[in-house]
Amino acid sequence: MSSPQQTISVAGENSLIVYFGDKPGAAIASQVAQTAQQLRESLSQVLIDLIPSYASLLVIYNPLQTDHNAVRKSIRQALSHLTDDAISESNKAQGSLVSLPVYYSTESGPDLQALADGAGLTTEQVIAIHQQTEYRVYAIGFAPGFAYLGEVDPRIAAPRLATPRQKVPRGAVAIADRQTAVYPAQSPGGWNLIGLCPQRMFDPNANPTMPVQVGDRVRFEGIDKQTFLDLGGEL
Predict the structure, then answer these.
(1) Strand order in the sheet with 7-12
(2) Burial of 24 per CB tally in 10 Å (0-12, 13-18, 19+)
């Protein structure tokens, strides 16, 4: 089911980019993941890399083995296999379900109280709502292992901080607008911090290097302080 919203453009001498729509969402993420999987199979001998994003897929190939026209044909064929039924089923089941432990508290989440106050909720309600949602990995970017997850329940959605922090700790669980994420390493950041996750989101020595991929689903599971420390978390 190729859609008028799906367009294929030249991105470089050996790359094409597929745009799936204007707004990210579960259906778009599903189409990106499905198309990437099909292209890994159909272009396996000539493919250099596939880079998925919110609503696009960059296809990089070996120009010594193929060309734009052949790759474009493969992409169109992959898009033609996207059916309404397939998309519906993919939204329900595609990708791995990953559970991430979180120590939620005002100690580990310095913005938790302010976010709760702004939403007219208690901190316990914010924590419960954050755990109730199953999030889709829309994209990985900003830093290796930084997975953009959506969509956050509108009751706890919050704008980015007016003044970003110079240092956000590794493992910080955060909210910005309708997205949530876990910071994979210490870095500057302007998202609202509500807890800490002891799970490493990027480890270059591990295989795989990241616990989640685009198209996966994520649930957060609250843990207490001692469990957080026992799992290798640092305060």
Answers:
(1) 7-12, 15-19, 56-61, 47-52
(2) buried
Return the H-helix or E-strand segment holding 107.
Answer: none
CATH class of 7-93: alpha beta
Task: Report d(CA 188, CA 51) in Å as an integer.
Answer: 24
Predicted local distance difference test score (pLDDT) of residue 139: 83
Query: What are the tokens at 31?
Result: 């189409």
pLDDT(146) > 70: yes
Look up residue 215 and give its two tokens: 């198209």
Stretch(es) of the chain classified as CATH 2.40.100.10:
97-230
pLDDT of residue 4: 52
166's tokens: 């110079």
Q: Stretch 84-98: mean pLDDT, rounded? A: 59
For the chain, residues classed under CATH 3.30.1360.40 are 7-93
Helices (H), the chain: 26-42, 68-80, 84-93, 112-119, 123-132, 225-230
Architecture of the domain spanning 97-230: Beta Barrel (2.40)
Q: How far apart are alpha carbons 200 and 45 in whole angstroms?
A: 32
Indicate the residue type of 1.
M
231/3 Cα distance (integer angstroms): 46
